[in-house]
Amino acid sequence: MAKTVLSRYLDADVLSRVASLQIDPRALVIGNLAGAHKSPLSGFAVEFKGHREYVPGDDPKHIDWRVFFNRDKYFIKQYEMETNFVCHLLLDVSASMRYGEGKEQKLDYAASIAATLGYSIIRQSDKVSLATFDDKVRDVLTPSNSLAQVTRITNHLDQIKPVQKTRMADCLTELSGWMGRREIVVILSDFFTELAPLEAALQRLRYDQHEVVLFQVMHHDELEFPLGGMVKFVGLEVDEEILAQPEVLRDSYLRAMEAHRSELDAICHRNRCELVLADTSRNMAETLADYLHQRSLLNRGR
User: Fold this and answer.
1) Are 232 and 243 in contact (CB under 8 A)?
2) Cut 0.85: pTM above it
3) What is the pLDDT of residues 193-210, one digit of tens each?
4) CA–CA separation, 221 vs 242, rounded Å?
5) From CA 172, how far away is CA 185, in angstroms rounded?
6) Mean pLDDT confidence for 48-66
7) Of 82, 187, 63, the residue nearest 124 (C-alpha)
8) What whole-number percentage of the chain has pLDDT above 90?
């Protein structure tokens, strides 16, 4: 059973495409294990950083005796610690995420991205958590870097039944109180929500110095509106049906969609968050490989 669930959310081809791409934090991170990412804290491990003058209470074993013999003063060696990061995957499981069929359903696509990122992060010995939310926080898997966490994540994803509206801003604010500081937060959603409260919630996450990445998961129909003929539109989060010709609605719909996406992009720019468009009609391996490759290039240029 576990293997079947794993294979639903983890595709071997996708994993092979992203396996060689390291997921690194762009900002300095704080962790509780020795790892591969630089920490802003000064410690006594890994890479030499500099000296500071000795003060009573410092461990004498860290005194640099060569400096003492040259300057007749005590100085402590300082090192830059290396640390693991924690990545929090926050998945919107509200009813609007049901749109689409098969692998192009928004929720399945977003869940597969979450599982793939989770697996890749754990393979680096970093920690990952998963939280699901709609009109409230539904469940939280606490951070772990055990491979068993991948099974826990996929089992949880397999139990989701999206039926509620979203109250994203409230849920993100609640989750921010549960997280630490200076971690990575990946939000997977279509972001069909009020944007002003969302910006306030993102500002709370940025105040805690988290690196925030928004994966906007959209079905191709929502982006291009390629429908034709007489269509019955059924609300996923409202109890309403409309019979209409898409040709009549297309221009106004696309203008409204562009305005919403432009405002979301502006919010991310103002608050220094990343925004990644994930079109469910596109091969997921390409979406993730392109994003991680671009992220790697930006990290090298820091």
Assistant:
1) yes
2) no
3) 999 999 999 999 999 999
4) 17
5) 10
6) 73
7) 82
8) 53
DSSP string for the chain = -HHHHHHHH--HHHHHHHTT-----SS----SS--SEEEEEEESSSEEEEEEE--TTS-GGGB-HHHHHHHSS-EEEEEEEEE--EEEEEEE-SGGGG-SSGGGSHHHHHHHHHHHHHHHHHHTT-EEEEEEESSSEEEEEEEE-STHHHHHHHHHHHT----S---HHHHHHHHHHHS-SS-EEEEEE---S-HHHHHHHHHHHHHTT-EEEEEEEE-HHHHH----SSEEEE-SSSS-EEEE-HHHHHHHHHHHHHHHHHHHHHHHHHTT-EEEEEETTS-HHHHHHHHHHHHHHHHHT-
- Which pLDDT value is given to residue 55? 65
Instruction: Output b/e per residue, 60-77; b: 16+ Cβ within 10 A.
Output: eeebbeebeeeeeeebbe
pLDDT number for residue 137: 95
Q: Which two tokens stand for residue 34?
A: 């020795």
Averaged pLDDT, 124-148? 93
Closest CA to 285 of 21, 82, 57, 7: 21
Give how far the C-alpha of residue 265 lies from the chain's centroid of Cα atoms, to the nearest Å. 16
Pairing between β-strand 86-92 and β-strand 47-53 as defined by DSSP bridges = unpaired
The percentage of the chain sitting over the pLDDT mark of 70, rounded to a whole number, equals: 84
Residue 57: the pLDDT is 59
Q: Could you tell me the domains of the chain?
A: 2-27+85-300 (3.40.50.410), 37-83 (no CATH)
140-170 pLDDT, tens digit per residue, is: 999 998 989 999 999 999 999 888 889 999 9
Q: Specify whether the backbone of 58 is left (phi greater than 0), alpha (psi in -120 to 50) or beta.
A: beta
Rg (CA), the chain: 23
